[in-house]
Amino acid sequence: MKKTLMAALLVLALFNVSLSAQAAIKAPAVYVALGDSLAAGQTPDSKIDAGYADLIAQELSRHQPVALYTKQLAFPGFTTEDVLERIKSEQAQEVLASANIITLSAGANDLLRLIQSNPEEGSLAFQQIQVDFALNEARLNMEAILAELKERAPNADVYVMGYYFAYPHARENQKEGTAVQLERLNEILKNSAKKAGAAFVSVDKAFGKNATNKVPSPGDVHPNLLGYQAMANAFLDHYQKGWKVEKLELPKPNPMTFEEIQKQQEQQREQQEGRPSSMERTSARPSEQMVNEYLALREPLQYI
To answer: Average pLDDT per run of 10 along the chain, which is 304 residues long?
Structure first.
């Protein structure tokens, strides 16, 4: 990672110019995706594939130099507290220092873990007092996250990703209460971003309350590739008007389980250390090292 970051910083020094008069463009881009399972690219069947961050990196590379892209700091299930802890870690220090574009998705898990969803009945329920407390904690943590990023990533433009309505399969008379809480979360994220001088990227209009074509599983809140495309395009609309991920540019599905990612990483480590791969080696669960290091789809991608 250190060699990769040194290369990225060298390219950044050589190409520290904009490709156009629009100040938003960062060239070369050093793009770091932070946050929860949406940043990691989790699919509706609990695998990892290309998510909005991967699509953003793909579109950036079509138009400009990209020195580094990584989502290694993102992790499924992260709350705002977890994200705050991650960006303070030694692992994050060097990559954040080199970043000039950061996307951040955090806050949904603070709220959605309190929503009791019954997919068979299409019902949604929550305790308002618990939600009020969780949203206030999310606000405090988000403000702390953005303050930390201002210090640890001084050259980065930070984009705070909003959230979509995650229960389009619920009965219509069950949606309103939960939708209001998600709107409150988005308002918190928007206000926190404005206060910190970051950009807020709204995605809820691209989904609406009935986006079963983007959130296809009644029992899972994660979007499919069409949903991630909508999120990526919402970011690109902020970053550079006219840049857009088209349907024909979407990558072919390549979902991987945590176990498959673990095996891939073990093979890579063995090859780097000059040892033959142990194809017979199996594991029922992801290793502790994998959980602590990287559960996203790939190693950081380099474009130099």
So the answer is: 52 45 72 96 92 96 94 93 95 94 97 94 96 98 98 97 97 96 98 97 96 96 97 96 94 86 74 53 36 38 31
With respect to residue 303, please indicate whether it lies within any of the assigned structural domains: no
Rounded to whole angstroms, the Cα distance separating 151 from 235 reads 23
Q: Which residues contact 301 (CB under 8 A, 6 or more apart)?
A: 57, 68, 69, 70
pTM, entire model: 0.82
Number of domains in the chain: 1
Is 126 domain-assigned?
yes
The DSSP result for 212-238, as a single string, is: TTTS--TT-----HHHHHHHHHHHHHH
pLDDT tens per residue, range 145-202: 999 999 999 999 999 999 999 999 999 999 999 999 999 999 999 999 999 999 999 9
Cα 145 to Cα 112: distance, rounded to the nearest angstrom? 20
How far is residue 176's CA from residue 195's CA, in Å, rounded to a whole number?
28
Q: How far is CA 53 from the centre of its chain?
A: 6
202 within some domain? yes
Rounded distance between C-alpha atoms, residue 210 and residue 224, angstroms: 14
Model confidence over 271-299: pLDDT tens digits? Answer: 767 654 433 333 333 334 434 433 333 33
Residue 145 lies in a domain: yes
Q: For residue 169, what are the domain limits?
A: 2-257
Check which CATH number belongs to the domain holding 94 and give it: 3.40.50.1110
